[in-house]
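dumping these here so i dont lose them again. two proteins, back to back, each one seq then structure tokens. dont judge the mess
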Amino acid sequence: MKFTYPKHEKLKSQTAINLLFSEGKSVAKYPLRLVYVENPNAEEKLQIGVSVSKKYFKKAVDRNLFKRLLRESYRLNKNLLKIDSEKKYSMMLLYQTKDRLSFEEIQEKMILLFEKFQKETEK
């Protein structure tokens, strides 16, 4: 499997994002939260976006750092997301704390979060 995060996997559609936050479900593993919705109109099997709140990090430099860490962690662990071929998902990863976690800690939480997501979608 390729460990890439190509452009077609990035969540950019405003309608998909609105659908995500109006009808989406979420799973959390502190300090990460994954909001997801099954989106049959999506072009890809999986589209994902990342977000870090201005509430916790006032400086854009800090927000961008944690967004980069989230994207990298997703890129390295996306093989854990085993999704049925007929289902398509839109997802948003949210970093929800003032704590400055290391990349290793974020990666551990991301793995636990993806495992929790797998259990939720198998129900």
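---- next one ----
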Amino acid sequence: MKIASRNFALPFGLAGALLSALLPGAAGAADAYPSRPLTIVVGYSAGGATDILTRLVAQGLSKELGQSVIVENKAGANSNIGAEYVARSKTDGYTLYVGTIANTINRALYKNLSYDFVKDFKPIGMMAMISNVLVVNSKSPIKSVAQYIDYAKAHPGKLTCASSGVGSSIHMSCELFKIRTGTDILHVPYRGSGPAKADLIGGQVDSMFDNLPSSLSHIKSGELRALATTTAKRTEALPDVPTFAEAGVKDFVVHSWFGLAAPSGTPDEIVHTLNTALNKVLQSTSIKQAYEKNGFSAPEQPNSSTQFSDFIQSEIATWADVVKKSNIKVQ
């Protein structure tokens, strides 16, 4: 018995779809990154320096990438909650994280972190740096860094230094200052820089190594007196305020910094796309003006993923040494 042979012809549209699915790169061409909105996670509450900066950059990234860029705040545990969330996210480039100096400090400070800032993240690029500034109440008799040191040495353990919390850059600036100057200053942690600054203005604490954008308006209004900035060069926002090097404290440079990172395993081509877009944003006139107004400094160009990675490693080494020498314990 003969079995009749049959020719099956697929409809043209279906045949084309199957061919596209089989051809390498065809799906990628149809779904070029990014094809939907991105989310940038900030490990702090809204209104702080990290949040303000991220929203400025997100607006620029949205224009460069042609997609909405949403800023999501996941505050808590000195930014560890937000970092862990992103570290466990998909590696498709749609969930990103704003890493800060706190993440490099936390690596040494916390013994049981559920993520590794080096292994679980792929750096994209630096977003900005800011100076910290040593401020006292404008009614304080202390008018210079030299007087601050003299008072601390004459009253060991009595001079108070407020911070936004244990392990923050504000706290660690104070600890590094103590190491460099051989002083005994009492650290007073708060739940955020806002309440710390309120008590400094109110006279309940003596000093604070605050993030510059946070204190800038209070310095200009005369409520706080700036003694020195923690950067290597004077900041444009406070051109009349000396650096600590100029004030006689050597080897004391602290930059609070902010950078964009993706979960480890994110494809290199996506990281390159994001790095290119970020650098275009940073060179735009609107961002330069916003940075100047808020006391941020743009990173030097070129600003590559590799350079940001090297910087992170150097920061980890610096703060691990400070944590060890300060014998800081986290409850």
